[in-house]
Amino acid sequence: MRRTELISNSAEETIEVGRKIGAQLKGGEVIAVCGVLGSGKTHLIKGIAAGAGTEEAREVTSPTFVIVNEYKGRLDVYHVDAYRLNSLSEFEMIGFDDYCYPQSVVAIEWADKIEQALAGIDYIRIELTHKGQRQREIHTKNIPEYINIACSV
């Protein structure tokens, strides 16, 4: 497991980084996506869903009010938005464990709000930060060796 750092110069590049990640996922991964409002979390997950073979990847939106969206593809992608969750127990009540199986990927926006619930799970952490008006830094932690995103977008 390793760390990587990338620079994205646009929303399209952030989606492409996600697509590269999603295309290399094997299933069973949990991805904690963190960052402030407007940092590109949803764009990244849109790309992950596309790379995982989701046919409706263009329709990927943040599930802020429904909490979880499910997308079918080569892998089942569960897109969780923890923004409106107020406690770890609320996170557990959405059935997180039910989404974790060998043919699924669980991508959690605002994961920093519920990261304690992921203790004991081998998860990928991706943090997006503003570097400029359009530019973003993308930091990954605990990324598996089989995922190569070190090349430029």
What does this structure look like?
With 153 residues, this protein is an alpha/beta fold. Helices cover 23% and strands 29% of the residues. The protein has helices spanning 11-24, 41-51, 88-93, 96-99; strands at 2-8, 29-35, 68-71, 76-81, 104-109, 124-130, 136-143. The chain has a seven-stranded mixed beta sheet. Strand 6 (124-130) and strand 7 form a beta hairpin. Helix 1 (11-24) crosses helix 2. The longest helix is centred in the N-terminal third of the chain and has 14 residues, at 11-24. The chain starts with a strand and ends in a 10-residue tail after the last strand.
Radius of gyration computed on alpha carbons? 14 Å
Roughly what percent helix?
10-25%
Question: Could you tell me the strand content as a percent range?
Answer: 25-35%
Q: Which stretches are low in confidence, meaning pLDDT under 50 for 5 or more residues running?
A: none
Biggest sheet strand order reads 1-7-6-2-5-4-3
Please give a handful of descriptors for the protein shown.
7-stranded mixed sheet; 153 residues; 7 strands; globular; alpha/beta; 23% helix
In short:
This protein is of the alpha/beta class.
Summarize the topology:
Blueprint: E1 2-8, H1 11-24, E2 29-35, H2 41-51, E3 68-71, E4 76-81, H3 88-93, H4 96-99, E5 104-109, E6 124-130, E7 136-143
Parallel strand pairs: 2-5, 2-6, 4-5
Antiparallel strand pairs: 1-7, 3-4, 6-7
Helix pairs in contact: 1-2
